[in-house]
UniProtKB/TrEMBL annotation:
Known role: Methylates ribosomal protein L11.
Protein name (record): Ribosomal protein L11 methyltransferase
Organism lineage string: Bacteria, Bacillati, Bacillota, Bacilli, Lactobacillales
Species assigned in the record: Ligilactobacillus araffinosus DSM 20653
Entries under Pfam families matching the protein: PrmA
Residues that bind S-adenosyl-L-methionine: T140, G161, D183, N226
Enzyme class: transferase
Amino acid sequence: MDWTELVVETTNEAIDAVTNILMENEAGGVQIDDHDLNDVRVITYFPANINVAEKAPELEMQIKGLSQFGIDPGKATVKLSDVNDDSWRDVWKKYYHPVRITRYLTIVPSWEDYQPESDDEKVIRLDPGRAFGTGTHPTTSLALLALEKEIRGNESMIDVGTGSGVLSIAAKYLGAGKIDAYDIDDEAIKATKENVALNPIAKDINIGTNSLLDGISKKVDLIVANILAEIIVPLIPQAKECLNPSGKFITSGIINDKKDLIVNELTDHGFVIDEILNQKDWYSIIAHLPSEGE
């Protein structure tokens, strides 16, 4: 498969805002080249069947428009180039290295030889697959931290918009029980299956194609969704119907100016906010569905 590489030249302070703009325009994940803090490169990839050339002028305009919000976008240039599959993988390998994300969870690329530093360190092996990210973006890091905080053992879980499958795999390492991982994108499903194969502990995860929780009627103890805030909104009433009493709902992928929207939607639908985690301009919200009499 061929790919289109999209590179935004910007500043360190604009990284999160640029990432959000790209994610809102169908980018599934990004890599950051910030070796020179004055000239940062935000890199992502699109399959060749997506006409990125049509998107580029609008993206550049949105990025330059960040100055209206007090964010210096720097050069704010958008550059495109075609790459083949081998070149694409080589670029991922250049920027993707083992990273300790939480107290117990370390993400390691599939091609790295890595040994745990302690007995309680859980090593998640991943191949980025397409552009679904390496698990190190703040939205994913926050979701992983929330899972580490909330999983006690044997919880049933649904992972909505699983992407690379990293959250489901991490949940298995943390002791979760039955897990269903859903995504609407066939490439995401393929990437999740490949990553599950790299982590035998996760072999019994049920992976399926589905749009949010449409048509899902089962009840579970935990639902996690690392997706854009605009997509979380219609998911909230669905999650309410699919959670057991006292069930937990972890959302991530929420940029600063969408946080209040998600908090209000959750409380309006009867959820209780337990904790709000943040990293830079990104937020993850841990909420639960009250049991009767609570």
